[in-house]
Every structure is written in structure tokens, then in C-alpha cells.
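Go through the following before class.
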Amino acid sequence: MGLALLAGFRAAVGQAYGPGSGPTHRVQLFVEDFTQPDSIPVLGKLGAFTADLLRLDLLQVSIADVKRTSRAPACGGVLSSADSVNRPRAGGDFYVVRGSITARGTDAYLDFAFDRCRADTLPTLLHKTQPLSLSEPLEDLTLIGGYVTSTLRAQLPRIGVAVLALKPVRPEDAEERRLAASVRQRLVEAIWRSPDLRPADSGRSAYSISGSIAFDTRGPAPAAEPSRDVEVRLRVGVARQPNGYPLAAVRGSRGNLEALYSDVADQALRGLGEVVYAESHSLTQRLDAMEAAALLERARQLMCDGASQACTPDSAGAVAVLTAAAQKSPDNWHVLLLLGRVQVGSRNPSTAITALTRAQELVDRDRRAGRAVPADEQSQLLNALGDLYRSTGSYETAAADYGESLRLRPSQMDIYVKQARSLRFAGARAQALRVLADGLRLEPGSLPLNQEAVDVIRDFGAKDLDSVAATLRALGTTVRKAPSDIRREYTDSLLALGQELFDARAGTRLQVVFETVLQIGPANSAARARANGYLGAIFLGDLDAQPLTNGCLAALVPGFQAGLVDQYLASAPVESEDLPTVTREWLLRLRALYWERQADYAKAMPFAERAVRVQPTKNGSLVLGEIAFLWAKQQDSAAHTCEDATRRAPGTRQLYLRAVEQFRPLVEQRYDAADWYLREANHALGRDEETKELMASLLKQTPRDFSALHILQYVCNEYLGDIQCSWGLVRTRDSLHLIAPDDTGSILDAGEIAVLAGELQRAEAWFGRLSRVQLVPRRQIITTFYRVWIAIERRQADALPGAYGEWQASAERFRQSQSTLSWSFEGAKHVLATTGNSRIGRPCVDLLQLMIDSLEQSARPIPVLTPSCQRASD
């Protein structure tokens, strides 16, 4: 069945409501907004969206006047005065679609019902509950639209059509009589298959189909042409138009009767649809008898184009009229444009593509021929194409069409929004913001453009920052002219984006985000302080950087720029009265870190103490403890007592104790950023056993605590010289699969500890894992050192020179790389000093010690393999 026919039937059913009743009235159908709980923020406004989507589905049934409403009319009774304000009125019977979106645990469900008000009662025709996918709700909602639409159709009466007997032109011809009866039967079957029609008796139907059939008795057709020796002429009859409407003749062949039956049925149904449509809309002519210009004007009326008062668009009727107009005037692109627009609006993209692309071809042809095409009409076509491609998910194509439309008419604010949204869905967020910025330069106060720009900003990720920096700066200048509530939306969104990406370590690329906040002008001093605070934090450098080398002096933190930090933090006064407590604490902590980065701990300490007083936080305790620890280390270094805990500057021990006071509660609460500091502070105080006991107790609670395992292993191996403890921890970590194949640091630890424990075979297995990895020089030097040790202890005199040569070469590469060793040989020194002589002999102990010294002190020469050690290895 053709589209024009379907549209005609559906538009006319309301005027043929009831068997043999003739034109009566249309059905009223109300779609209530679906209710939803506020406890599922991810749903957004899905309830209202669901109502809109169902309304679009139900528009396919043109008998229905579909209205979306917050509350449907009462069924029966008289409305109270209060209800009469809040509820629409409805006369007679009507239908209601209602529902809700509910939550059960973490799942969402859609519950909906379809009711009919009849004789003051409201029975439910359909009620379903089904899970709702929050990731792809449109699929579920489309399914529901199908349920409701099919249920509605089942409730509506179908148009009765009487199929009268076809008259043979030569009644005496038996074959003509048989074929006439067969054609009629096939017409009856086709009408039964139609969703909107039913066969009826002639006295009980408003419409009828009659006609005649004749054989062509002329000579045989030429061999080059198929034989068409049957002609069927049909007429659609209407109760108030006795003569009816003749249809075009259908010709076919007795040799292919199936094709003939199909063609006759199509012609009959198409003609019937056009007649029904013309009758129901009081047209004086059938559609195929009207001129294209009249059809186009009628379609515009149906679509409410230029309507000065309330008007309900009839999309299905407009499609029927425009389809007829396109048949009349196939090269009229105005007709095709309007047809495509209507088809897009009625969710019929496949046919809309045909109409709109043909319209574009015709416009291009006119322009090539030198015929003027007004810019506003070109932009209408491009916008319709953009709408079409956006509805089918072809977002890049849609964005290109919208962009060309804007080039022709830059003043279309709604098209800036559509193009930007298409680009967002295509993943081109930076380009989307540039489009919106172009529109906002023309109209800075446009609410839709500003709201869309805010939404785009909320979608940004770290990878977008470089490509969007210039646009953000330009937007900041434009938005300064916008109303204060719009500016607040921007600053809130930019601050939220900046905080999220700051936590994701986006680094200095965030500078443009927070500077744009300041450029727009924050609504209050708290927002201004946050923006300046984040700018200062950005240039504090890597907040996770280890602030110490293996010695006592603080190392320079990468990325720290003192001048910029001072500039920004000075613009974020902590004394502002409207600062929230959390912001005040954070700004004080940033100032403490600023002075810590410059190793001025006397100035850093008061800020850290104030931060903890304002609001105690784990981060604040960590910074306070860190400053106390670094200050103590600085004093140790100044007194040249870093390696001798017995000689210490006055007050240094108290600083270490204060650091432990801050770190230990954090460690016990498993804020593992404090683990390293507690280990080092306790070591400076000679409390390594205390660290060992604490970490062991934590591991009893959580055996897979990676940080506690690592800290305990280090304390046992490097500070206590308890090699059996550290070797047991290596085996525990290995059994728990906590040493990853690509974790070269942990593998080196395991190999070293295996050597120190005398587990040489296991050590070779660990180092063997690294033979397949390209190690950096500071890692390679450790591997080759312990390979030398293994060769010595295994008495492998033949292999020792080669192993030692590899170590010398790696030592040279390490020195040339000018990198930091970042390795402790304390455990190795302890083993050499206690059991080295018995395991490898004094000459080799001395050689290994010289090798260690040359690695820890670059001024020392790289030693050569001593003959005494080589002899001891025989």
C-alpha cells in the first residue's frame, strides 16, 4: 500500500467512525507525563521525554487528536473548580496513556498503561512493566510506542468498503465472467489485509468499489512487447456522490494473472485512499485531479505554516497531499522540500532522504543554470537535510549541512545549536564549542546557545584542552557581556571541569580553564579564590613527586614555578568572609606547599598548622607531617649528621617526633601516601622495629596490602638486615601474584634479596625474567652487579671475567646517562659485613664493596677485577 493511501486512510478514519455511519468525530487521546523519582539523577527528564516520544508514535494514527499533558481529564463526573484549572476538558469518549519510571535497587523499570474512558468508566486496555535500559532507553521506549499504537488501532473501527461485482463487457464470454469474479475476490482479500479497511455490504458502507473487465480481442501483441490483453476499469463510489470517481485503467495479461491481481488491488486501494481523503477534508476534487500549486498550498495549511491561531499539524495528511503534488510536478523542489520536512517530522527518514536529496539536486541544477535561488530557501533545504541526517545518526554530514546553511544565513541561532550538537555527538567537542562561540559573537545573550556551550564544556576531557584553548579565551571575552546567571553557569561548569581534570593530573594545560573563569568574572570571591587556588596548584608541580633524594637534601619538584604560584595564591586571600571552610583549608595547605617547595619550612609550618586547625583532613595532616620531616632532614644535612643519628641539631628530634605524630594515624587508617614518610621518620629516630611491628599487624588484617608489604620488605632488608624476613616477604608477594611481569623494580628487589639470602638459583630465575626486557642504565647496573656476585659465590671462575666486563660496561653507560641511582645497598653492605667472608672470601668482599662505592659516589673510579678475588673464585 502506498504512502499517500495510508495517509489518506488514517486521516479519514475519524470521519468514517462506525459501520455505515458516515463522517462523525475524531478520537481524543491524552499522553500524560510519566512520573519518575528524584532518586535517580541519571534519568534526567526522561519522564517528559517518554511522553513526547509516545505522542510522536501516536501521530501515525491520524484519527487521534494527540495531546501531551501533565494530567488527563477526569473520566465522568464534573470537575471541581480547582481541577478545571489544572486538567484539560474532554467531551465523550477518550483514551489516556500514562506511566511511571521506578527504581528497584540499581535497576530501572518502566510501567505504563493504556486506558479508555467510555460511559464514565476507565477500563485498562493494556498494562505492561518492563526493565528500562539506562544506557539505551530509546530502544525500549520505541517498543512501548509500538504496543500502544497497535492496541489503539485494534480498538478503532475500520472503514467499511463494499466490493461490488465487476461487470464483464461481454457477459456471454464465460472466461471474462470467471476472471471478473477472481479479480473481485482478490480485491476483497486485499481490503481484509489493510489495517484500516474491512469489506462490508453495500447498504452498510460509505464507500464502494465497482468496475468492469474486458479482453482485448485485437490481434496478438508484437513479440518484443509482453501481451497485455486484459483491461480492468474501476470506480470508487461514495454515498453522497452516486456517480463516484473513475480510476485509471489497469492493463494486464491472462498469461500472468498474479501480476494483474496485484496491480488492480494497488490501483483500487490507492484510489480509495485519495477519495476518502478528499471527502474527509471537504476537497472538491480528488488529489490526482488537483493542480500542483493547489496541492502545495493545501499541504501548507495541513502543516499549519503561517497559521495565526492554534492549529494541530496533520503530518499524515500533508504527506498524502505532497506525494500527489510531487507526482504532478516532479521537478518542483519546493514540493520536495516540504515533503521531506514533513517526512522527517513524522519519523520517516528513508523516504525523506529521497525527497530532500532530489530537492538538493534540483537546487544545484538551477544555480548552475544561473537561476537565482533565495538564500533563505537554500538554508531551509540545508536545515531539513541536517535534521534528517542528525535523526539517522549521520552527525558529521548533518553538521556539514548546518554549516553551509549558516554560511548563507549567519543569523540562525537555532542552527548553531543544532550544528554544535551534531558535532558533539560526532565526538568533535572542540569544534562544537567554536561553532557556538561564532553564534554568541552575534548574540551574546542567547540562552539556547549559552546553555549548549555550557553542556559542551561539561563534556570536555583532558585531550580536548589543547585544541580548545583559543576558543575558551575568545568565549570568555564574549560571555562577559551575558547576564549574570549565564556567567555563573559558565564559571560553575568550568570550575567543575577544572577540578575533575586536575584530579586526573591534566597539569598546566588546565591553565586556560581557570583563567577563563577569571576572565568571565566569578560571581563571588569563593569562586575567584578557587580559580586562583587551582592555578597556583597547577604550578606547584607534581604533587605526587618524591620530595627527597637518597641523601638528606630536598630535591627540586618537577614543574614548580615559584613566581606564578605566588602570583595566583596572592589573588586568593584566605581571609574572605564568604569562603567555605573546605576552600579556606585548601588554600592554606597550598601556601604551605608553596613554601615547602622552596625549602623554607619555617614559613611553611604556620600555614600547615592553620590548615589543620580550620578543618582537619588527611591531606592536611600529611602536609604538616611532611613539612616537619623535611625540616628535620634539612637540619640534619646542615649539621652534616645525615648518616649519624647520634649527632643532631637541637630541635631536630622533636620535628621527627612531630612528623611521626601526623603520619602514624594516617598509616593506621591506610592512607598509604604516609607509609614512606613514617618509615623514614622512624628510621631517623632509630625506631625501625616499631615500623616492622606496625606493618606486620596491618598485613595480618589485609595480606594483599601492597604498600605494607613493600615497606616491611624494605625495612627488613635495608634497615634491620633481617634477610630471612625480607626473603619470606618476597615469597609471599610472589605467591599472591603481587609481582607483575613488567614490574622491573619489584623483580630487581626479589633478585637482590634472593642473592642476599643465598638462594642463588631463585635469584638467577628472577634476573632471567629481565633478560627479555630493555632496562634503563640505572636498572641494568643493579642486574649486572648481582650477576657478578652470583658468579663469585658459585665459584664460576670461567664466567666471572665476562660477568664483570658486562658490569663495567653498564657502569660506564650509567655514568654517561647522568641519572640518579635510586637504589639502596644497605642490605648488601650488611650481608658483606656479617657473612661475606665465609660466603665469598675477603678479597671478593672488598671488590664488591668497591663496586658499590663507585655506584654511590660518582667521583670514585670504576674498579677492575682483582686477581685475588678471581683466584678466590676458583
About this structure: Residues 257-280 form the longest helix (24 residues).
